[in-house]
Amino acid sequence: MQYCVSEKIGVWENINFQKNPEAWKIPVFGRTFFPNCLPFACVCGIITAMFSDTHFHLLHTAERGVDMSEAFSALASRSAFFALEIGTHCDDLDARLAAADSAVSAVRDDALRSKLLDLLYFSAGIWPAPEAIGARFEQVAELERRISAARSADTLLSFKGKKLCALGECGLDHHWNPSGADNRSESDFSAAMLTGEAELFEMQLELARKFGLPVIVHSRDAFDGTLSCIANVGYDCGVIHCYSYGIAEARAFIDRGWYVSFSGAVTYTKRSKMPEMTDLLRFIPRDRLLLETDSPYLAPVPYRGKPNTPVLVELVYRYVADALNLPPETLSALVDANIRDLFGIGR
Predict the structure, then answer these.
(1) Phi, psi torsion values for 92, nearest 5 degrees
(2) In what order do the strands lie in the sheet with 120-124?
(3) CA 225, 151, 121, 173: dihedral to nearest 10 degrees?
(4) Which SUPFAM superfamilies match (predicted)?
(5) 3-state SS, residue 152
(6) In degrees rounded to 5, what are phi and psi of residue 55?
(7) If the chain, 347 residues long, is cut into consecutive pieces of 10 residues, what is the mean pLDDT of each piece?
């Protein structure tokens, strides 16, 4: 099978389609499309979403010199269905909303601005920083207050409707790297601190259940503890973001009903580990798969080491689509269907 890429619309087209059209039928949302007809379908509005990003950090990305108005314009120009801006502090939602509102307002094209107001969504949660762990009871109370206010509002600045659609990111992080950006050292995590970290995570799981929100889970080098917290609370609704474990661990999460999300880190896979990564990607049920950037972190190859942006999520889709033997546009449609199901978009 041969493909050519159209620079004008940035999609793949099967140039051998006419030789055997029946062989290339693909079901999408209960309807049948052909791979080379997906670009036409997108243009005609049959499939309107291209390359959603389920996890990015606006303020952190802007701090690295990225013009978010330009990044947002690019998302809207390709009619992305969804982009989820993620919280990490109990009280950061207002600042993030204001930054998003400002970036959208700077987009001059009225149609693009309208699309952005539709596609942008937000979460609120507490990342397991030592300071947050130490003040966990006060911080979770503040988070609850902020979520309650946002959920009861009909508008959040220029954003209309229920735009707070998830709780997180929250979870456990036992990746010890004192010289890294997180400045996370094992010596700072006594038994009491580890217990507090688990309590902070479980309190947020309980809060998500109270509000009926899916949870964005951060789990790094902490599989057993993460699964234990989830089992203790018994709330199984959400996604394990930036997934970094193997098939056995994925099975444990999926069996409980969780989604699994991959970031640009998948493109870092060494050649010797490619079969392993491919097996993992193919193991994830297609109705449990999400994709993300985690901007400004984990920029996909060939941009590794540079600030990441939601626009680069397309490279993640293309990498995963290749592993799954799917056209990227078909994968985009599948992920968007999962976004609708998990986050309740359009209900």
Answers:
(1) -95, -5
(2) 53-56, 83-85, 120-124, 164-173, 215-220, 238-240, 259-262, 289-291
(3) -20
(4) Metallo-dependent hydrolases
(5) helix
(6) -165, 110
(7) 27 32 36 35 45 98 97 95 98 97 97 97 97 97 97 92 96 79 74 96 98 98 98 98 98 98 97 96 98 98 97 97 97 97 90
Q: Looking up tokens 């970290």, which residue turns up?
A: 197
Q: Is residue 33 part of a domain?
A: no
Domain count within the chain: 1
Distances (CA, A) of 254 to 30, 163, 173, 211, 239: 23, 26, 20, 22, 10
- The helix or strand, by DSSP H or E, that contains position 122, with its residue range, turns out to be strand 120-124
Q: Is 200 helix (H, G, I), strand (E, B) or coil?
A: helix
Residue 84 domain-assigned? yes
CA distance 17 to 30: 21
CA dihedral over 168, 171, 175, 177, signed as positive or negative: positive
Q: Is residue 29 part of a domain?
A: no
User: Which ranges in 130-171 belong to alpha helices (H)?
Assistant: 130-134, 136-152
247 inside domain: yes
Give the domain CATH number at 113: 3.20.20.140
- Please give the Cα distance from 200 to 27 (Å, whole number): 42
Tell me how far apart the alpha carbons of residues 289 and 260 are, in angstroms, rounded to a whole number: 5
**C-alpha to C-alpha distance for 29 and 39, rounded to whole angstroms:** 16
Q: How far apart are the first and last CA of the chain?
A: 39
